User: Which sequence fits this backbone?
C-alpha cells in the first residue's frame, strides 16, 4: 500500500539591509537625471532580487530591478535646487524582507 502525506512548510524570510550611493557627480536643476547605485545585502547570503523604489517627499522619482543584490536607479530631473532627502526602498521578495535607506543629494542651479 502506497501512502502520501502532505506537510505545510513555512520558510522564514531573510532580513535585508539596503545601502544607496550617489553615482552622478553634479546634479543640475531640470538638466541632470541623476543615478543612484543600490546594494541589498541579506543576513543569510541569499541573493536579493526584486524591485527598488526611490521617492522624494512621497513622490516616486525612480525605480529599478534588483538582481543579485545590485541595481542602478536613474532618477527624474529635479525641478528646484537645494538639498533633497531621498528614500530608497527595497520592496522585498518571497525569500527576502523589505528594507530601506535614505540618501541626501544636493541639486545645484542651472548654468
Assistant:
Amino acid at each position: 500500500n502506497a501512502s502520501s502525506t502532505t506537510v505545510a512548510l513555512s520558510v522564514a524570510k531573510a532580513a535585508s539591509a539596503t545601502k544607496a550611493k550617489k553615482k552622478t557627480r553634479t546634479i543640475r536643476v531640470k538638466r541632470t537625471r541623476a543615478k543612484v547605485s543600490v546594494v541589498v545585502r541579506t543576513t543569510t547570503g541569499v541573493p536579493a532580487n526584486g524591485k527598488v523604489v526611490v521617492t522624494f517627499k512621497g513622490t516616486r522619482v525612480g525605480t529599478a530591478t534588483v538582481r543579485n543584490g545590485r541595481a542602478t536607479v536613474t532618477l527624474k530631473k529635479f525641478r528646484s535646487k537645494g538639498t533633497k532627502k531621498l528614500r530608497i526602498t527595497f520592496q522585498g521578495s518571497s525569500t527576502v524582507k523589505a528594507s530601506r535607506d535614505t540618501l541626501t543629494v544636493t541639486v545645484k542651479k542651472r548654468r
The two ends are 82 Å apart (CA to CA). The longest strand covers residues 99-108.
